[in-house]
Amino acid sequence: MKEVGKKIIVKKARVSNRTRIKKPLIIASGSACFWVHNGPILCHLLDLHRCLETIKPEQYNYHVGRLGNDFARWVRQVLRDDDCGQALVEATSATEAHQIVTKCLKKYSF
Q1: 26-37 per-position pLDDT tens digit
Q2: Alpha-carbon span 46 to 27, nearest angstrom
Q3: How far apart are the C-alpha atoms of 88 and 81, rounded to whole Å?
Q4: Global pTM value
């Protein structure tokens, strides 16, 4: 802070990408959890990340080919991450979806 005549000049602090505050991980419970077809029950984005590493193509296709992308819808509506959900809509494979979730997890604290 510096006084110039009657004016006070306050320098704004810079916020770098490294110092950004991370979001808390949202954890779903009960019926809000995601039930993978013939697979695990997912409660948060970390669960989805782990699932996408080992999910079978027919399981993945079941959730993205029927009535839209179930994973993207769940991430947006339940886990409240619009950016990640929108990116998942664009994924064409479980591997690509896994890469998207990996990137999205960087903005969370857990």
Answers
A1: 999 999 999 999
A2: 10
A3: 11
A4: 0.80
